[in-house]
């Protein structure tokens, strides 16, 4: 490409990014080509799905540019960039630094993919639509118009991927049309059709009444057309989504229906029903005894409910986790293989302490675990003996796993990776009889589907969590959808969180910002006028006031703020806290030994640790008794200083003391869920550096987070009602016989 063309492209990109010109202005300067041939409209007769929400059809395979699996193009952990990729990016005026990311996103054949469809550059992390438009113009010239079908497909996919970052698994047509209009797409509706026809997007029609229509009296008993005539036309909602999230939600709905029917003998054959009845009857006395010995009324209710149900949801605050511990101990005392899974290592450690406390000093939990271990695979002992075993992302586990394994506690991520948790049988299923998942609101659709697909038939599943905390980092709202679908028993804990902090947080959960009595300075409000004062007072609290007045040392105090940027975001706060608490040149990629860090190996997973050392292998961290190494090329992407972090990062974590910073320039991001999550991170003490004015009470009273757009609730309700209809039909048939 000529230097003039390169200069023109760079100038265009800068103009769009600065707001001087709109993206469509660069297209309208040239004559637009004729629109490509159009396929049948999405949602047409041949494409329509049933009202139950089955995909309305896939487009012909191969009609959309394929995207490889994440990581293709790597060699020995490092990305190999073919020369033709660099050459094509240079021809299109794109920076050479995009080359590794392009190969990671599109594979070693990235050059061929981009030559055929320049807008596939949007699949590369960090590339904006305006930049992809400029790249396409550089390669295609006048052929690159705003109505190009390839551009339409890429933009629809991008909008759905951006929606997934907000937690949505699908989008409504109006939302897609609005997003496409912002990118100067001349016919948004046609663009969506083209994306469906290209096989890049699936279209669904979900029933708004979320259940099979009932036949009118006197109808539905005839044959053929008479039965169809008795069906009422059902209102539907059209939705569009990417196949990965559609498959995850459908797989999840199937797995939940399977688990929920564990003790539903009406859904099984006569022999299976007799077997299930016998199993429940034989275990009933033991469960009854365990329930009577439960440490609280809510724990008794949970144990009783789980005894006769394959699937149970359980909600409550931090104190309710003791009820899960009581359930796990009770199940293990009955000889069942019971495990509790948490979202974080910190949560696992807290659950381990609760299990040990419930079991008591007589070693009941250890005895139960030993009895359970006899039924597991012989390899369990060898796995427990491993010291420094390498796990995902180069993490190494230390021998402290013994106590955790004995207590039956692990993390969800570690269990899915096979690094901890229950063993797997020959078919790859988890060797468990009861699985209790804490922090269930942190489960996204894909993670939950992967976990539940590994749960064997006959196992009990309890999903537990606090419904008021911030939701999962990934797309989906599994816990909320499952509770709303009412397809399984639900237990609401009546155990309140203790102390002034617990009282304050409980009030926030119901929309009230209470003035609680705190005689021991458990809750302190520190008013500030501006961000500079907020940073100063925060450092003062962490380094001096909280340790001196409250007795909580600095390393057990966590700062939480709304965002990373801004004059009182995590970057500014961490810089000030490092200067006070652990000054140094940052000779290891900006870090020094002793720095507190937040390690995020994957979206939604954050662990707080300390820098131990660094060498050519990477940054060595100490996190919850484990030593892990972050490779040099992953440090910038996954490690931040961690004295201050966001509430989203802190979800699932707890500290003895928390300092929550509310700067005046971050009031727009405050919501009830954010305040509830941030304020609830402190166990004994909470300091609020308050510069948000009336935005705080307003967020608590009316700042409800928007509902995520998902399909799981409809899928679950449809499945449950269809099963009920089948049971009614079987009963009618039996009575006729």
UniProtKB/TrEMBL annotation:
Transmembrane segments: none annotated. Residues 84-169 form the ATP-dependent RecD2 DNA helicase-like helix-hairpin-helix domain. Residues 378-390 have a biased composition (Acidic residues). Residues 15-78, 210-233, 366-402 are annotated as: Disordered. SUPFAM superfamilies: P-loop containing nucleoside triphosphate hydrolases. Residues 33-49, 56-68, 366-377 have a biased composition (Low complexity). Coiled coil: none annotated. It comes from the Bacteria. Residues 17-32, 69-78 have a biased composition (Basic and acidic residues). This is Exodeoxyribonuclease V. It comes from Streptomyces tubbatahanensis.
């Amino acid at each position: 490409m000529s230097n003039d063309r390169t200069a023109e492209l760079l100038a265009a990109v800068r103009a769009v990014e600065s707001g001087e010109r709109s993206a469509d202005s660069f297209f309208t300067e040239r004559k637009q080509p004729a629109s490509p041939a159009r396929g049948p409209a999405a949602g047409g007769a041949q494409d329509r799905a049933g009202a139950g929400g089955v995909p309305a059809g896939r487009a012909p395979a191969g009609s959309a540019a394929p995207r490889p699996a994440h990581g293709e193009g790597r060699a020995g952990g490092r990305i190999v960039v073919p020369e033709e990729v660099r050459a094509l990016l240079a021809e299109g005026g794109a920076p050479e630094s995009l080359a590794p990311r392009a190969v990671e996103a599109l594979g070693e054949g990235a050059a061929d993919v981009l030559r055929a469809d320049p807008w596939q550059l949007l699949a590369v992390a960090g590339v904006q639509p305006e930049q992809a438009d400029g790249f396409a113009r550089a390669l295609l010239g006048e052929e690159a118009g705003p109505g190009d079908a390839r551009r339409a497909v890429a933009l629809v996919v991008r909008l759905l991927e951006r929606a997934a970052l907000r937690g949505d698994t699908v989008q409504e047509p109006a939302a897609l049309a609005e997003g496409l209009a912002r990118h100067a797409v001349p016919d948004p509706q046609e663009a969506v059709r083209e994306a469906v026809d290209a096989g890049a997007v699936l279209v669904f029609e979900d029933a708004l009444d979320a259940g099979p229509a009932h036949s009118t009296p006197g109808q539905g008993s005839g044959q053929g057309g008479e039965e169809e005539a008795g069906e009422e036309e059902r209102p539907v909602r059209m939705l569009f989504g990417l196949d990965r999230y559609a498959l995850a939600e459908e797989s999840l709905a199937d797995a939940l229906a399977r688990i929920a029917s564990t003790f539903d003998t009406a859904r099984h054959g006569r022999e299976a029903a007799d077997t299930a009845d016998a199993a429940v009857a034989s275990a009933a006395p033991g469960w009854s005894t365990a329930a009577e010995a439960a440490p609280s009324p809510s724990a008794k209710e949970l144990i009783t409910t789980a005894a006769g149900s394959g699937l149970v949801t359980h909600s409550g605050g931090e104190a309710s986790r003791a009820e899960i511990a009581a359930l796990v101990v009770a199940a293990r005392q009955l000889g069942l293989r019971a495990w509790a899974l948490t979202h974080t290592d910190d949560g696992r450690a807290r659950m381990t302490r609760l299990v040990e406390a419930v079991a008591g000093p007589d070693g009941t939990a250890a005895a139960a675990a030993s009895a359970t271990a006899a039924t597991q695979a012989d390899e369990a002992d060898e796995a427990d003996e491993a010291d420094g075993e390498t796990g995902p992302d180069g993490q190494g586990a230390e021998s402290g796993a013994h106590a955790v394994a004995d207590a039956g506690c692990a993390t969800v991520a570690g269990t899915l990776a096979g690094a901890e948790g229950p063993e797997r049988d020959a078919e790859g299923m988890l060797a468990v009889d009861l699985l209790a998942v804490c922090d269930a609101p942190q489960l996204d659709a894909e993670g939950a589907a992967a976990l539940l697909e590994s749960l064997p038939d006959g196992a009990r599943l309890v999903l537990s969590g606090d419904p008021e905390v911030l939701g999962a980092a990934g797309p989906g709202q599994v816990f909320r959808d499952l509770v709303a679908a009412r397809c399984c028993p639900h237990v609401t804990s009546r155990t309140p969180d203790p102390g002034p902090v617990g009282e304050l947080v409980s009030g926030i959960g119901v929309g009230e910002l209470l003035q609680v009595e705190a005689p021991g300075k458990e809750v302190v409000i520190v008013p500030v006028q501006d961000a500079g004062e907020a940073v100063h007072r925060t450092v003062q609290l962490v380094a001096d006031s909280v340790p001196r007045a409250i007795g909580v040392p600095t390393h057990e105090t966590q700062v939480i703020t709304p965002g990373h940027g801004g004059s009182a975001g995590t970057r500014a706060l961490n810089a000030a806290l490092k200067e006070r608490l652990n000054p140094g040149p940052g000779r290891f990629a900006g870090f020094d030994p002793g720095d507190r860090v937040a390690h995020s190996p994957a979206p939604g997973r954050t662990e707080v640790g300390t820098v131990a050392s660094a060498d050519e292998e990477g940054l060595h961290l100490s996190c919850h008794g484990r030593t892990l190494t972050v490779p040099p090329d992953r440090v910038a992407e996954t490690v931040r200083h961690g004295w201050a972090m966001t509430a989203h990062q802190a979800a699932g974590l707890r500290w003895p003391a928390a300092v929550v910073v509310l700067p005046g320039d971050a009031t727009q991001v405050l919501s009830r869920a954010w305040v509830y999550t941030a304020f609830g991170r402190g166990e004994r003490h909470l300091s609020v550096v308050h510069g948000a004015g009336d935005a705080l009470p307003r967020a608590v009273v009316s700042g409800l987070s928007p509902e995520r757009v998902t399909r799981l609730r409809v899928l679950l309700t449809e499945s449950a009602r269809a099963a009920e209809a089948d049971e009614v039909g079987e009963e009618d048939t039996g009575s006729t016989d």
